[in-house]
Structure formats: structure tokens, C-alpha cells
Amino acid sequence: MSTDIQRLHVAARFSEAAVFNGVVYLAGMVPECEPTDIRSQTADVLHQIERRLAETGSDKTRILRTQIYLKDIGDIAAMNEVWDAWVVAGTAPPRATVQAALANPDYLIEVVVTAAVKP
Prior knowledge:
Elements: E1 6-10, E2 15-20, E3 23-26, H1 38-55, E4 63-70, H2 76-86, E5 95-99, E6 109-116
């Protein structure tokens, strides 16, 4: 395995992804869609995760760990509906979901993912 760190979509403050030693580390993914409801924001974020994982040679079946931050933990049931439809059966990763104050008041969700690169 390479000892080089690959960074994708690098900005002044952070990179959206880093790959090291066969592991992909994604930054917190937040909604890019117009502020609506938790279902649409969750779908938007999960779509972004799929894109970033594909760019790094991984996919959602190779997620090792997920951290989900919700503005309101009361949204967990609606968020889980979208999540459950997205996760491939038999590949649900270890996951934590907590309520948190998010950086933008329009964000209802932020998701951080760590995944393995495909061999």
C-alpha cells in the first residue's frame, strides 16, 4: 500500500476527502440542496457520499464507520427511512447518531464517513 496521502477537493480550510493506506476519510458532508426537510437533506448528503467514495475507489458497501449529526434528534425516524433505503442489505456499517449544533442553521444533518478502498 502507498504511504502517500491523496487529498481531494482541497480548500484553504479542509479537504473533502483523504485517502491513506487503503482507507478513505470523508469530511463532514452537509446538504447542498435548498433547505427543505430532513428526508431531502439526508438523500442529498448520501448522494454526495456516494460520489466522493466513487472518486476514491470505494463505495457505500465498504463503509467502515459513519457518524451522523442531526440538528434535531427528533428527526431520527425520518432520517432512518432514507438511510435504510440507501444502505445495501448486509453491509450496514457501525454508526453513531447524535444531536449537535451544526455550522449553518439551515443544515439539518451532517454525515462523516470512513471507508475502505476497493482492492
